[in-house]
Design a protein that fits this description.
It is a single chain. The chain has 13 helices and 15 strands. It has 421 residues and is an alpha/beta fold. Strand 11, helix 10 and strand 12 form a beta-alpha-beta unit. It is elongated and about 80 Å long. The structure holds iron/sulfur cluster. Iron/sulfur cluster binds next to helix 13.
Length: 421
């Protein structure tokens, strides 16, 4: 369930029903002001609501007050092991300080950090990682890693409550996607505080994005999670922000920028759609409005499932077509498809978001479409539509109104784990 409590990080609300907040972490040496500020600028432009910086040394905390002053978005200081750095980060004006109460040097040190946070009115993030659980939970971790993670987090929450401090969010992170899902589900039922979600050390841009989409997407779809950070092995922190947004957009949790739809292609494709889609995606980054743009590999289906797209293109060998909201706009040579698509999009904005249609061009495009459409072709889209129709029909006649459900306990593979080399 969604968190009941809400905190404010530099004016950005987290939890209590607020939109899911996107954050990332800089990868520069924090004390290198110019590199750090450059990266903060790039992540802010990519849509980060918050940015975290690592503060492992004195010189980093010395740079912090200037970073906080100059950053366009609130700054979270990430501290491990050294409670004096946490105190200094609070004094430097960090909008939030992340500590792991298990490695900060004992409960009295945690209490000192909490006292200072209360004095300056700054929230904390208390984080628990699968790699750094307190010693007394190590045997539980061997038996039940999920319960161990949740127990550690709840113990830290209880410590905060004993200190009468409630201005914090909580994270439990694991490199294991299913443990991250299970532990956050459990934790969300046990505490009312906002949850920070992430898969720790998720991997490269490719595998890390997928793991994060599965882990965080599953939780977010359940309404669990108030702020997310995607961890990718790349120096370009803005890539993490872009992935976070794609997850939120896919779940319709937040809107930002255009939505690109592209068919998966098949043997009917007659032009270089790979390059076309990449180019369309690149050029769409310049637009902020959430318009929907579609790229179809052929016109055999007509405009079909792309009917709702604000703009779209479909191509054949030498000629292609631009359409808008289900209606053909114009036909153009394939090599000019992308340029003409963006010319139409720009014309739409220049006209105050009105689609500009030239009747003669539209008639020529409709004739081209009629020539290339084949209503008898069994395309992937038509097969999917037929399957959906068949499923609806069998539900309507009542014969199978009871949906088949998977029962894990009855599964022949229940409790087994598979690995694949
Ligand atoms: S039939 Fe469908 S998947 Fe195949 S190229 Fe055409 S639009 Fe793309």
């Amino acid at each position: 369930m969604a968190s009941e409590r809400q905190i404010q990080v530099g004016g950005v609300p987290i939890g209590g029903g607020a939109p899911v907040v996107v954050q990332t972490m800089t990868k520069t040496e924090t004390a290198d002001l110019s590199a750090t500020m450059d990266q903060i600028g790039r992540v802010a432009e990519a849509g980060a609501d918050l940015v975290r910086v690592a503060v492992p040394r004195e010189k980093d905390v010395e740079a912090l007050s200037r970073i906080v002053r100059e950053s366009p978005i609130p700054v979270i200081a990430d501290i491990h092991f050294n409670y004096t750095l946490a105190l200094k980060a609070l004094d430097a004006g960090a909008h939030c300080v992340r500590i792991n109460p298990g490695n900060i040097g004992g409960q009295d040190k945690v209490a000192q950090v909490v006292d200072r946070a209360r004095e300056v009115g700054t929230p904390l993030r208390i984080g628990v990682n699968s790699g750094s659980l307190p010693k007394h939970l190590h045997s539980l971790e061997d038996e039940n890693p999920v319960e161990a993670l949740v127990t550690a987090a709840v113990e830290f929450v209880e410590l905060m409550e004993r200190l009468e401090f409630y201005d914090f969010k909580v994270s439990i992170k694991s490199t294991n996607v299913s443990n991250t899902i299970a532990s956050n589900r459990l934790l969300s039922e046990r505490i009312p505080y906002p949850l920070h979600l992430g898969i720790t050390e998720a991997g490269t841009k490719w595998s890390g994005s997928l793991k994060s989409a599965v882990g965080l997407g599953t939780l977010l779809a359940d309404g669990i999670g108030d702020t997310i950070r995607i961890s990718l092995s790349t120096f370009h922190a803005e890539e993490e922000v872009k992935v976070a947004w794609e997850i939120l957009k896919a779940l319709h949790l937040r809107e930002r920028g255009p939505v690109l739809i592209a068919c998966p292609t098949c043997g009917r494709l007659q032009f270089d759609m790979d390059s076309v889609v990449a180019e369309v995606e690149r050029r769409l980054e310049a637009y902020e409005d959430p318009i929907e743009v579609s790229v179809l590999g052929c016109a055999v289906n007509g405009i079909g499932e792309a009917r709702h797209a604000d703009f779209g293109i479909t191509g054949a060998k030498d000629m292609g077509m631009i359409y808008s909201r289900g209606e053909p706009l114009k036909k153009v040579p394939t090599e000019r498809l992308v340029d003409e698509l963006f010319a139409e999009i720009d014309r739409y904005y220049a006209a105050g978001k009105r689609v500009m249609r030239d009747e003669a061009d539209a008639a020529a495009a409709s004739a081209w479409l009629a020539e290339h459409e084949d209503v008898t072709a069994m395309t992937p889209e038509r097969m999917a539509a037929l399957e959906a129709q068949a499923a609806d029909a069998s539900e309507d006649d009542g014969a199978s109104s009871e949906r088949i459900r998977l029962d894990e306990a009855l599964s022949p593979v229940a409790g087994r784990r598979f690995t694949r080399a």
